[in-house]
């Protein structure tokens, strides 16, 4: 008899997971979403084995439940369905913040094992129509087990990540994860949208260099999602933003002083740090 893996939320991430996980071990992949257009598209394009709008019909029989909703949606879903999960089930999420999600998961009964996860993959697009199974190829799969997480569930997630094509599984803590993501992802999105706030944006249309296009690629973001991600990771993101503002101010001061030697020294240091980071070396989260 097949086991059941339910993916709640069939957007870009959940839809891509449903495609990538078809055929995984002896699991039946069931997609859940409240959007009828999303469900129709998923059913017509084979996103998972089958789909439904009624989470309550499939959650109680699910051996594994993956939550691929927006952050607040995950928090609300855990609260609303805390008593619906099958005893012994594994519940995990794919959210880009971890501390807030792990705190919300404390509402679950002891019989349900929750493990925070974050496959570090995605695109600037959203929606199931942009989902593709190869999205996770070569990506890191970050995992935040709880002290009482079951070894067999950790091992299952490791096999699942490998099946999706992830490069590796990196264990970390909620706090370390959120600090990392604030620097490597969230602050980059803030830079992108801030650059697009410049009054000269449209006057430059057609004359953008590749560096401008690369910097602003993620600016056309999903407003609802990123509002939640920024808000739920506010302490870590503010710390990174304050450091960035200090670095920008330092460059402004050396430019305003007209000191070419000091400017060259700062540029050389920054460039050397980037080149050093690009050298092959061990991953820090192993």
UniProtKB/TrEMBL annotation:
Domain Prephenate/arogenate dehydrogenase: residue ranges: 3-285
Gene3D superfamilies associated with the record: 6-phosphogluconate dehydrogenase C-terminal like domain, NAD(P)-binding Rossmann-like Domain
Pathway of action: Amino-acid biosynthesis
A Pfam family the protein falls into: PDH_C
Oxidoreductase is among the record's keywords: yes
UniProt key word Oxidoreductase: yes
Keywords tagged on the record: Oxidoreductase
Top-level taxon in the UniProt lineage: Bacteria
Family per similarity comment: Belongs to the prephenate/arogenate dehydrogenase family.
Name assigned to this protein: Prephenate dehydrogenase
């Amino acid at each position: 008899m097949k086991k059941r893996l339910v993916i709640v939320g069939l957007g870009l991430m959940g839809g891509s997971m449903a495609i990538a996980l078809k055929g995984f071990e002896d699991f039946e992949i069931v997609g859940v979403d409240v959007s009828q257009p999303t469900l129709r598209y998923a059913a017509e394009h084979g996103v998972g084995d089958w789909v439904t709008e009624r989470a309550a019909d499939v959650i109680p029989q699910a051996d594994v439940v993956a939550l691929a909703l927006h952050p607040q949606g995950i928090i609300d879903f855990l609260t609303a369905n805390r008593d619906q999960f099958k005893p012994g089930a594994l519940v995990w999420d794919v959210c880009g913040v971890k501390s807030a999600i792990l705190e919300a998961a404390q509402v679950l009964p002891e019989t349900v094992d929750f493990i925070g996860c974050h496959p570090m993959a995605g695109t600037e697009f959203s929606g199931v129509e942009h989902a593709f199974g190869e999205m996770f190829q070569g990506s890191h799969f970050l995992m935040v087990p709880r002290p009482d997480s079951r070894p067999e569930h950790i091992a299952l997630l490791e096999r699942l990540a490998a099946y999706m094509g992830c490069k590796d599984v990196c264990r970390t803590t909620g706090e370390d994860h959120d600090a990392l993501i604030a620097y490597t992802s969230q602050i980059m999105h803030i830079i992108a949208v801030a650059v697009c706030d410049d009054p000269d944006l449209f006057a430059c249309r057609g004359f953008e260099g590749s560096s401008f296009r690369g910097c602003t690629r993620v600016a056309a973001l999903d407003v609802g999602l990123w509002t939640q991600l920024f808000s739920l990771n506010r302490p870590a993101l503010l710390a990174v933003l304050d450091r960035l503002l200090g670095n920008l101010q330092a460059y402004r001061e050396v430019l305003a002083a007209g000191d070419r030697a000091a400017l060259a020294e700062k540029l050389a240091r920054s460039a050397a740090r980037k080149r050093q980071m690009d050298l092959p070396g061990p991953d820090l989260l192993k």
